[in-house]
Amino acid sequence: MASVTGLDGVVAAETELSLVDGQNGYLVYRGYEAKELALKMSFEEVAYLLWHGELPSAEAINAFKKQWVDHRAIPTELKAVLDLLPKESEMMSVLRTAISVLGTCTRQESAWPPQFEHILANTALLPTIIAYHYRRSQGLQPVEPDPQLDHVANYLYMLTGSKPQYVHVKVLTAYFILAMEHGMNASTFAGRVVLSTQSDITSALCASIGAMKGPLHGGAPSEVLQMLDEIGTKEQAEAWLREELGAGRKLMGFGHRIYKTSDPRAEALRQLMQELASEDPWFDLAVHVEKVAVELLREYKPGRNLYVNVEFYAAAVMRAIALPTSLFTPSFTLSRIVGWTAHLLEQAGCNRIFRPQSVYVGELPASLLNRP
Ligand SMILES: CC(C)(COP(=O)(O)OP(=O)(O)OC[C@H]1O[C@@H](n2cnc3c(N)ncnc32)[C@H](O)[C@@H]1OP(=O)(O)O)[C@@H](O)C(=O)NCCC(=O)NCCS
């Protein structure tokens, strides 16, 4: 039996949620191009689409937003646990812990199939948890959620304590929508595997958060900033990139298992940022580094089709709105939880436990080798 490292090319499920076309470079959510949704819709509308299968009417979205706002406050038991954690705890570990505590305190742990109320509760609360721990780590008082603000604006408000600029909400919403769902990526797969045992959504979400934490999945944007900081100027880009590639190191924000052409999410974010930050020398450097890196990847890794991925320009968006790097992966997470939970609903609707095989390549005992 042939083994497939990294399950490359293996189809693990059918889904109606998204089409990731890696050859032609497009991404579709339930029949709509994600980049169109990113420019026109709110976070809540696209979440509704992914969870319910259709875009909401004006009446439905108003009712939905009210329901959403009701889940934003941190329950007392969870607050007590968050206050016990070391202030310097890494945010993704805090999120994993918080989701676990929330599930236990709100009796989500025995629910099968997953209940929509629990999905909304986890999704609505994540930004509050991030903002709460972030401000605590900075020695700042927490900021209560503002029921007048939508999900993304409220996130920025709870982080900073001030009403966010319209343009910041616009670019962050576009990034969040583009990052919301992406087929059978590692964190989504991890969650579906856990749920397929008829376990609860809390356990599935903890698995997804754990997978998201790794630098090969959700941790790339902060490393992109570090790379651009080290490169410093356009003149130094080629030499720096050559040294990395020559030493066999990977360039963060490049390459993708599925996309063998430019990642459409990166294209959309680059375009949006061009309108916003065309005067910013840092953004100019980023565009230059992308161009040189793609040329060099062609030279050092011929035939691998390595292009820019979403994380590269996600870094640009998050830098433009002055999000600290420690919040990059958690911010990605508060968006991807929509895709994860949509997949959990889908998995529960046609569940069969995941159980792939492995190929034994170790020694056999003599008793078996000599058996006739
Ligand atoms: C995304 C990623 C994990 C996909 O991994 P994958 O499908 O398993 O691809 P592989 O790691 O097997 O890469 C295939 C080849 O391309 C090379 N490669 C892939 N991404 C590369 C990168 N960013 N820089 C340099 N080389 C890269 C690998 O070294 C490998 O070369 P080889 O055939 O000589 O061994 C990988 O491209 C990567 O690590 N990128 C950087 C991290 C990143 O940006 N992550 C965010 C993803 S949205």
UniProtKB/TrEMBL annotation:
Pathway: Carbohydrate metabolism; tricarboxylic acid cycle. The keyword Chaperone does not apply. PROSITE patterns: CITRATE_SYNTHASE. CDD domains: BsCS-I_like (cd06109). One of its GO terms (molecular function) is citrate synthase activity. Keywords: Acyltransferase, Transferase. InterPro entries: Citrate_synth-like_lrg_a-sub, Citrate_synth-like_sm_a-sub, Citrate_synthase, Citrate_synthase_AS, Citrate_synthase_bac-typ, Citrate_synthase_sf. It catalyses: oxaloacetate + acetyl-CoA + H2O = citrate + CoA + H(+). It comes from the Bacteria. Belongs to the citrate synthase family. This is Citrate synthase.
